[in-house]
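Researcher: Go.
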Amino acid sequence: MEDLLTIRPTRSWKDRKNHFLCALEDPWYKHIAAIENIIHHATCEFYRKEGIKTLFLPITTGSISSPMGLGSDSLPVKVNLCGVETYLADSMQFMLEYGCRIFEKGCYYIMPSFRGEMADERHLCQFYHSEAEFPGGLSDVMNLVERYIQYLCESILAEYEEELHLLVDDLGHIEKMISLCGTIPKVTFDEAAVILKNDPKYIEFCQPGFRNITREGEKELLRETGGIVWITHFDSLAVPFYQACDESGQKALNADLLFGIGEVVGSGERHQNKAEVMKALNRHRVPEKEYEWYVEMKEKFPLKTAGFGLGIERFLLWLLKHDDIRDCQILPRFNGANIIP
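Model: Structure:
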């Protein structure tokens, strides 16, 4: 017999014409909205305690954070705005770096991000990004991420535990996250490759000479490591040009936090000065033109910063122990489709 206490999504987003009416009567979406509200308020409270300030930013940009080049993992969304070609932001990390020159302890936002790929169980065309940047290095940002996730989980349980029991069979995964934050296991990419036995199903060998982990690889690594794990120090050409490198130049000072569906948080340390950025642009085969301002900022205002981005809907997917991210969006947006409202 079906558990009548458990509310499940009806996948009404498949009916693009009528979904908005169905969602108004669907308790699943009312709970999604309520949890998003808690996440928003908890995020503001957390950063106020940390002394990190919010920054209002545009959603258009001439400098996408995943340009066509080595290490890019998404397609940009180009638009024509009053006769001028520009992009919808895939991330405003560069603007947060700019904001670190305004606010000495760093800045954050929750904003929509736009991606050119088609939506599937793991990906949305438009999703909400919780991002922050502040002066510091890789270990500093990993510590901040763990404190932030712990704060979100504690806030959600404090305000919404009873309602969550209608959506999730048990809340042990949330309690486990709270207990682990501060001591989440870490493996380097090299160590992850060994754990996964360099199986081509899990570890991709790309040209020219760098590796990446596949979706199946993330799932297998999570099975091997208990369900929550950091992967650090990817091959430097496997990540975008803005990620700083170690002294060898071969390993990025970056870290992805995997739980639930896989990567939920991407984080890293940035290049400090012009020379480092120019070298990275050349190595990643990214034209300098759209990043001239970024290079100039690094030249005139050098600063060591680190930052991260957390996908809100991916966090919700884990929180609700669900398997399709398209159910975690109240009003869907699919590339190539005109959806009203």
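Model: The chain has a mean pLDDT of 95.
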